[in-house]
Amino acid sequence: xxxxxxxxxxxxxxxxxxxxxxxxxxxxxxxxxxxxxxxxxxxxxxxxxxxxxxxxxxxxxxxxxxxxxxxxxxxxxxxxxxx
Length: 83
Description:
Low-confidence stretches: none
Oligomer: single chain
Number of strands: 0
Largest sheet: none
Structural class: mainly alpha
Number of helices: 3
Radius of gyration: 15 Å
Shape: elongated
Order of helices and strands: HHH
């Protein structure tokens, strides 16, 4: 898929800020820092995705498409975020 555009990254940071605000969670970073954090996270995910693919192949899940692998990773990350 490749890294997200700057517009996508900014939209994700804004959406996260709105979500945290709605939950009344304090956030100790600026909007610019949130956008930079979204970019850093996107870069990290792209770098780690190849390693994830190799692990899935080893686990016998090599038949998953790239989109399905991303969905699996997202589902696990969201569950971890829920606590």
